[in-house]
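Quick review question:
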């Protein structure tokens, strides 16, 4: 995950909470870890995609006049 979205720690804390919940449900560590990986996979992909989109926006879009106009419009309206 690129660090530019500022959600790494939030995602990590949520991972811990969910992992503990799943560990409580399954006596086998191997089964619990498999269930955890299956459960968190989609969320991990989504947060990674959002972080990457934010990185691309901050890297390239902020110098665009269109970006400046859009931000002005968002903040004004």
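Suggested answer, residue by residue:
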């Amino acid at each position: 995950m690129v660090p530019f979205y500022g959600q790494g720690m939030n995602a990590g804390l949520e991972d811990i909470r969910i992992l503990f919940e799943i560990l409580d449900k399954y006596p086998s560590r191997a089964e619990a870890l498999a269930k955890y990986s299956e459960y968190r996979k989609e969320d991990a992909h989504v947060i990674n995609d959002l972080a990457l989109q934010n990185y691309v926006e901050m890297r390239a879009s902020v110098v665009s006049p269109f970006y400046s106009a859009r931000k002005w419009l968002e903040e004004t309206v």
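Why it works: The helical segments are 8-25, 29-60, 65-76. The two ends are 33 Å apart (CA to CA).
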